[in-house]
Amino acid sequence: MGLHIFIVSGCSSTKNAVEIIDVCTKIKDPSHSLISTIQDDLNKKAYQKFIYKYKSLKGSQLFFTDTFYHSKDNLNSLCLRTKISSAPEIKWKYKTLHIKNSCYNASDVKLSNSIEKAVDFSLKTAVSKNFPEMMNKDWNIVKNNIFDIKHSEPDINLKNNTICLDVKAKIYTDVISIDNTNQKSQNHKFEYIEDFSGFKLGDKADQYGKKIIIQQSNTGNGLSTLNKKGSFAIFNAGLKKNIKVKIYIQNQWNQNPIVSKKIQVAKLIYANKSSDKIEVKTSPYIFNSVKADIYIGGTKSEESNFPIASNYDVVSFTKKRREMRFFINGRFMGRFYLNGDIVSKISIPVSPDVIIDAVEIKETD
Q: pTM for the whole thing?
């Protein structure tokens, strides 16, 4: 029996919900920060806090009222207080997908996530066959519109490494969700900004990687780990070719004594699974400077130096197609040519001594 997909139309509704939301964000440099950008960031944080409580309203029309902004901590933070409410009895059209006898070829059916991948494969197959226009969007956005996912007991073939099952799910066909990685709607450029102010000290942050926790930094909260061997924090880069990235890091060079060593500060992971490491080899220099060689994409820059920062170091780069311009603490460190094109994720190493204060990833022209 081959694959069969059945579609049934339907409609759902949600009741009105009202919540008073308070959120704040740190301002790295008040003299150079655009107030409109900061307000956009606060609105995004307020939306996410509301949706965390009312998950069923994700993607619906929401109303922000009684909104006002205020500062605290000697103007180093801006806060938003607002009332968010949903429109009463919003009706969403959806389709029910019945996927019969979908079979997935797994690399190893014994892996714990093999059944999850088989279900995901079934959903992608059904969407691509019945709503091909949706496949032009990021799959995570499409999947945010799929709900009530159920599947039958899987038929697992250990010899052929195949998993066959039936899947039933509902998909909204007239709503585009905002995904919870801070990605804007399809009509806007990808933008990801996170300063971890929404977490509490000691929180586990498993969404960023294994053994990642929230620690106190010089400027607020940050990502770190208690694992002596270190760990990696992973951030979504939106599958973009042209991006500008800023990584605010504490204790990379600004607190630790400068010794001759080579460290990895980030890794670009591409859509085709290839990657480029960004490595910095430092040695003591004079006064408040560090001498460094930069290794990216198999190429090495000419030896240069960068200033040591006080609170945190800022590693930044601008990638346009396969060319990268790399900076440390505002100092241009070289131009590099990369192995990959479309960036899927950015991996940043952390250790018990190193804390990520904030990460910014923005799509550019």
A: 0.50
